[in-house]
Write a structure and sequence with these properties.
InterPro entries: F-box-like_dom_sf (IPR036047), F-box_dom (IPR001810). The protein is α+β, with helices and mostly antiparallel strands. It is built from eight helices and seven strands.
């Protein structure tokens, strides 16, 4: 019996298929199982897309925020399509101390969409910072981590895509 499972997990294509059904958190953890699993995950375009590290542009009608971000930050959405995020979380302290953390390489959304950091929608519609469509969480964090003096820690984002796909 041990030989069968060993054969399956030593077959790259089968391991990749099995891991493609894992949720984002489990897939991130699987990289720490052993060097072989990490090599398979790092070398798989399919798994890199599941991890939000490589873009997946296969014609989606809507796009989703990275579930890791949604889990760790408090997001809210208003009727005008603005998405706000409260960046004042305890989770930040631990995560920011590791500059090589994998979340920094992950894309903000899948498929990638351009977005802009804007002021509160009731005060300002001009972007303070515009991002292209393949911005990583680390890049977005570096720009938005510290509010301007006298500003709230809540951030407002607006979709800049010409596709006008909704957030999901």
């Amino acid at each position: 019996m041990g030989n069968a499972s060993e054969t399956v997990f030593n077959t790259t294509e089968l391991l990749e298929l099995i891991l493609s059904f894992a949720n984002l958190g489990d897939l991130l953890s699987a990289q720490r199982t052993c060097q072989r699993w990490k090599a398979v995950i790092d070398g798989s375009i399919k798994l890199q897309r599941c991890l939000y590290i490589l873009p997946d542009r296969r014609g989606a009608d809507c796009y989703g925020l990275n579930p890791l971000l949604v889990q760790r930050f408090r997001f809210s959405r208003d009727a005008r399509g603005y998405l706000s995020v409260d960046t004042n979380t305890e989770w930040q302290e631990r995560v920011l101390s590791c500059p090589s953390a994998s979340w920094r390489r992950m894309l903000v959304s899948q498929p990638p969409e351009p977005f802009a950091l804007v002021g509160p929608p009731w005060r300002c519609r001009r972007p303070r910072c515009a991002f292209g469509d393949e911005v990583s969480c680390g890049e977005a964090w570096e720009v938005t981590a510290e509010p301007a003096p006298g500003r709230t820690k809540r951030r407002y984002f607006r979709n800049r895509s010409r596709h006008n796909r909704p957030w999901v």
